[in-house]
Amino acid sequence: MSIPGLGQLAPTAAPIATAASPASAPTTTQTLKPFWEYRFDVPHGSTLGIKLVSGTAEKDGTELAPSTPYAFTATKSKINTWHGCTLEITAPASGTYDAYTSEPTAEETPMVSYLNLHFKLESLRAAAQRTGSMGPRVLVVGPPNAGKSSLTRTLASWATRMGRQPLVVNTDSREGMLTLPGTLSAAVFATLIDITTDWGSLPSSGASAIPVKLPLAYYYGLPQSDDNPKLFKRLLSRLAVAATSRLAEDVDVKSAGMLIDTGGIPTGTRAAAYYDFLGHIVAEFSVNIIIVLGSERVGSEMQKRFAGQTTTVGDTITVVGLDKSGGVMERDESFMQSIRESAIREYFFGNAKMTLSPFTQQVDFAAVSIWRINEAPAATSADGAGITYDDGETRTDTLEKAEPSMMMQNCVLAVACASVHDAPDTIRDANVMGFVYVADVDEKRHRLRILAPVSARLGDRPLLWGSWPEHMVNLLI
Ligand SMILES: Nc1ncnc2c1ncn2[C@@H]1O[C@H](COP(=O)(O)OP(=O)(O)OP(=O)(O)O)[C@@H](O)[C@H]1O
């Protein structure tokens, strides 16, 4: 399944630094030979400085500018080089970090196979440009922590560097792409990505040195894709319609095609639901290239299900297996929770480079229309009618009207691009305009204190209340 001649990255890692403290935190230089990677793990509360002194280097496909200091916090990632480079590393003034160099040869690193893939996609894009047809629609799949998002980002960056404008789609609602977690989103990438972030800064009202990418987002609002499969698939279809029409209206985006990131396929009984979602994505986005990262088991399942099939636009589906990088890092639940909390904080208050001033407003219970997104496990909604739970309620993909209550305190609510007068199904299908945070619920006075990124009234916009991202108690502290 792998491109011949490329094996798993050899674990030849040589630790160069751990647990820096102010006394032992000098600025050091690190020289990387061609194909080496500098891998680093910086926890929350620590900041690692990296500067390219000579040579060339990339992070997830985006080149580091020479002599420019970059600050990384709460990041597990790598800097790689094709031709060799020297980096200046400034250890955190306080706090810890781990870093090491991986020293593979060209034959050992999967990065070469990723680059080969990029050139293959480039030739398909050039052909699509000549004929006015749709460029490649690439789906990246694999088990959790296979490096799927990193590969998607790298392919997007390389395409952008060639002057292409691919549409990048995130179908992993546990993590947000250019928006908060809990969403499915798509955005055209025409400019470089801020390498100190995963996907770039969240769109906000502030100015930014790097052009901000505006995603189209739909709010799913539940922790797992299979918590409400019917709703999840419904929103994927909505996103696919929007993505396809974006391609239709712009020839440059059309020829560049799509890069679609997915959530990790779990093992065991939950896997079936995830393969079902992948089938849905393949059909709805007319996927014609499936990249399977780091799993022969997933690879053979994808081959069996999709290889050789004809897409809805008439081309044939190809399944390609690629090795996972030996450097991909596990991110435990507490690390991921702190990433989600930082995303919420950044959305309302900005980041180290740009401070935002969110707006607080008091709103009467009667002035808001809040809709609850419920879990509805698959087996129970096979007939489309939903299940009757012990509490006597029936749950489907349809939203349920919710009265403001203490349960909403410290929750993020999505503002739907719809009207409170719309039917629940229209509200469910609407894309998201933005988010507000419920800072306080005063049940006695029937008032909510709501934080919004801009000083605009909620007007007649309905609010969607899910359980993901989870409530965050210390946003205003
Ligand atoms: N070669 C590498 N060296 C060091 N870190 C890496 C490398 N490749 C990826 N990572 C890091 O490993 C982590 C997991 O990678 P990534 O998010 O790409 O995996 P994923 O398969 O998308 O994960 P998930 O299943 O959670 O969606 C990320 O923090 C990423 O930056």
From TrEMBL:
- Ranges of residues in domain Clp1 C-terminal: 356-470
Q: Where in the cell is it found?
A: Nucleus
Q: Which GO terms describe its cellular component?
A: mRNA cleavage factor complex
Annotated binding of ATP, by residue? 37, 76, 145-150
Residue ranges of domain Clp1 N-terminal in the record: 31-128
Molecular function via GO: ATP binding; polynucleotide 5'-hydroxyl-kinase activity
Gene3D superfamilies from the UniProt entry: Clp1, DNA binding domain, P-loop containing nucleotide triphosphate hydrolases, Pre-mRNA cleavage complex subunit Clp1, C-terminal domain
Start and end residues of each Clp1 P-loop domain: 142-349
Q: Which UniProt keywords apply?
A: ATP-binding, mRNA processing, Nucleotide-binding, Nucleus
Q: In Gene Ontology terms, what is a biological process of this protein?
A: tRNA splicing, via endonucleolytic cleavage and ligation
Q: Kindly report the protein's main subcellular placement as a broad class.
A: nucleus
Q: InterPro entries attached here? A: Clp1 (IPR028606), Clp1/Grc3 (IPR045116), Clp1_C (IPR010655), Clp1_C_sf (IPR038238), Clp1_N (IPR032324), Clp1_N_sf (IPR038239), CLP1_P (IPR032319), P-loop_NTPase (IPR027417)
Q: Which Pfam families match?
A: Clp1 (PF06807), CLP1_N (PF16573), CLP1_P (PF16575)
The annotated subunit structure for this chain is: Component of a pre-mRNA cleavage factor complex. Interacts directly with PCF11.
What is the recorded function of this protein according to its Swiss-Prot or TrEMBL entry?
Required for endonucleolytic cleavage during polyadenylation-dependent pre-mRNA 3'-end formation.
Q: Which family does it belong to?
A: Belongs to the Clp1 family. Clp1 subfamily.
Q: What is this protein called?
A: Polynucleotide 5'-hydroxyl-kinase GRC3
Lineage of source species: Eukaryota, Fungi, Dikarya, Ascomycota, Pezizomycotina
